[in-house]
Fold these 2 entries.
Entry 1:
Amino acid sequence: MRLKWSQKRAIRKSGIRFSETVVLRDVMETHVDGQREMNSATALDRNEPRPALVDPFGRDISYLRVSVTDRCDFRCVYCMAEHMSFLPKADLLTLEELDRLCSAFVARGVRKLRITGGEPLVRRGIMTLFASLSRHLASGALDELTLTTNGSQLAQHAAELAAHGVRRINVSLDTLDADKFRAITRWGALDQVMAGIDAAQKAGLKVKINTVALKGVNEHEFGQLMAWAHGRGMDLTLIEVMPLGEIGEGRLDQYLPLSLVRARLAEHYTLEDLDYRTGGPARYVRAAETGGRLGFITPLTHNFCEACNRVRVTCTGTLYMCLGQEDAADLRKPLRASESNDLLHAAIDEAIARKPKGHDFVIDRRHQRPALARHMSVTGG
Ligand SMILES: C[S@@+](CC[C@H](N)C(=O)[O-])C[C@H]1O[C@@H](n2cnc3c(N)ncnc32)[C@H](O)[C@@H]1O
Ligand code: SF4
């Protein structure tokens, strides 16, 4: 199928590489006639039925988080050092390869895909990936396509995300104070993120705010953040800082147990436990005074591994079976070794068979070094 002139012009304007135009072309064809004929390269694997992924502990793997870049336009103090060295662009999977990898997991029973990073919206041409993956929503193979973002580029992309079937997104925001925001993110601007959240809500996206609890930094702001989020119809989830990657400061200085945060909030709000689950590690309460939901992600004070349904792929195609363990499997090699997905599926099977029972995070005085050398921006949280 030849590209039309208008399609070529759109590709040139988007700046994406030619290898990625297959995805773009497919997307355009989808938009033109409403149904997608898969091209021969992508059709090789995809129609074959494959067994669902179940790990050695009987957990169904139905959730894939994909980091599409290790780069970011922020340098959050708990996530990155100020001077980071990033991967050479050549090491990254192309958008076409990312589509192929995600689609292979969808063929194995993954029903939820989260695009993350680094900052996913700084990856050039990323909307073509959303556009192409949206075919799995249309076919019913996927329940949810979603995104975790720092919000800085959201104003430009919110409407398009909604058009590609994204319904809910997570925006990370640790404070409502512009100076503190700059201090935490080192490079970020709060008003840009606020504009992103406005645009997302205007586009009809349901927004959840994620806030990392940082001792001595935002620890007295959670009531205010909650009232603000709930007032705008957004859930708020608080996250304990996890010991990932060298960041140039001690973790003990940052670590604030959420058990303490909850006890403090309970002095001012009536917090009722909820059965509500999103399939993730968060445990929710409702604040009677605001009527909204507040989540707690507590990997350190309470381990959330027993019901873990997820795995993570990095932008270089490395599969991590657990956020809190080093063990990983290279999927880029089998992906590139052949046009068929047989090698890829074999590598996925081998990796899932090694998914561990849980993580071993500890932060205390004897464990101030990172538990794992890699930064959160590698796997995207
Ligand atoms: C790595 S970021 C990637 C997506 C995007 N850049 C963002 O900030 O939302 C995903 C989430 O991980 C959180 N995070 C990063 N480093 C963390 C750490 N050491 N402990 C706990 N959460 C962390 C961030 O706050 C963010 O909510
Ligand atoms: S948490 Fe997200 S926004 Fe902050 S530095 Fe890490 S990847 Fe970037």
Entry 2:
Amino acid sequence: MTPLLTTDAIVVESYVGPKDERSLADDVLDGLTRPFKELPPKHFYDARGAELFDRICELPEYYPTRAERAILEERSADIVEATGAAELVELGSGTAAKTRLLLRAMADAGTLRRYVPLDVTESMVLTCADELVDEFPGLRVHGIVGDFERHLTHVPPPDGPRIVAFLGGTIGNFTPGTRRRFLRAIGRLLRPGVDHLLLGTDLVKDPAVLEAAYDDSAGVTAEFNRNVLHVINRELDANFDVGAYEHVAFFDREREWIEMRLRAERRMDVHVGKLGLDVAFAPREELRTEISAKFTVKRLTADLAASGLELRDVLTDPDELFALSLSGRPAG
Ligand SMILES: C[S@@+](CC[C@H](N)C(=O)[O-])C[C@H]1O[C@@H](n2cnc3c(N)ncnc32)[C@H](O)[C@@H]1O
């Protein structure tokens, strides 16, 4: 652990170190040597990737952020009343843009004590810690720079009734089996009958609406998708010809998830210097970079139940595009 910042109101700790460079190296070695090439989506998010994601959230086609925000605008006070939350732990907190609505409702209810953002992007955690202690006098921030798949155990013990928020539909990036394992790990941060999970899930809908959200006309999502190749070029001394990979996004109707892929325009021989690895792409060969599962209430309830969590409430926006659910471990 490396302490990054300590003031009266803020503690920020980093668990990202040389081992995490290994995690990119391991994922590249593992993912690019498979018959069907694949990389996990967390490697999109260097500073440029985080900035591109922010731009995606503003796009007319990208409804999830607006829909989730609309729910929080309407229902944050109810969520705080139902949970009595004094502490908000947020996984993949990013710029904490929507989270401020919840923190505001907690402050208005007089319960707000601590915010615990956890994100892989160091600059995001530091910036939002600074901004939030200014915005909410008396708030303490315990920031964690880390990987939510590996560093959940570093979330400090609760300081009052806790909400763990996992917003933005990021849970959809997990395949079904790992999704349940991850929800179970989140459950370990919750005390039975006391704490709650607030989970954002994108809902199954017209495939045309879904596909447009992941393939916008301005090409921002395409840039975001290709950013993972820039990250590998820089961090692992590779020579991907980034512009020669085409962005592909489609809704898999059977699995009910969006897939993002990068398609090689022509035959490509890539060298990854730091790994001493040569990877060949056949013309039009695809590399899967993200899945984003879409949910029904039935699927959500089943996933939560299989992870030891009980669904308490489902809140949706007026167009029923997106859902925020409250769940917890059953008391006793
Ligand atoms: C899709 S964005 C969502 C951001 C924000 N919560 C929202 O709802 O708009 C995903 C965020 O999770 C972070 N992230 C992605 N994978 C992560 C991981 N494995 N561990 C920690 N943070 C991760 C990214 O840095 C990014 O800020």
